Amino acid sequence: MITPLMADHSPQAKAGAGYAKGEFRIDWKSRTVCCPEGSTSIGWHPVTQHGHDAIVVEFDRWDCRACPAQKRCTTSARGSRMLTLRPKEGSPAVCVGAVSWADA
After folding, report:
1. What pTM, to 2 d.p., does this model score?
2. Helix, strand, or coil here: 70?
3. Which of 76, 29, 50 lies closest to 59 in space, CA to CA?
4. How many angstroms separate the CA atoms of 24 and 74, rounded?
5. Helices (H), ranges, 1-104
6. What are phi and psi of 42, to 5 degrees?
């Protein structure tokens, strides 16, 4: 089953500034995400949100706090970025024209 893309409601996407979800590289096989500044996620958490399967991706707060782009990337009081994805959101059939995805 191919799921629709989850809309990016992040402050970055809404403002058109910083790093929106589409700028992160998703590696479905290794269950990791690489941010535009080169940090790799530390958590991949399958969850159910509003009755739909989702994956919450977590980045290390110390990596984010040391990053020069932190203020443009997250508004989190925790100081690190988190992303919410739908399972296999990055599959080629769904991401036609998307900038960043990896399934190899």
Report:
1. 0.70
2. helix
3. 76
4. 13
5. 11-15, 61-66, 70-73
6. -110, -10
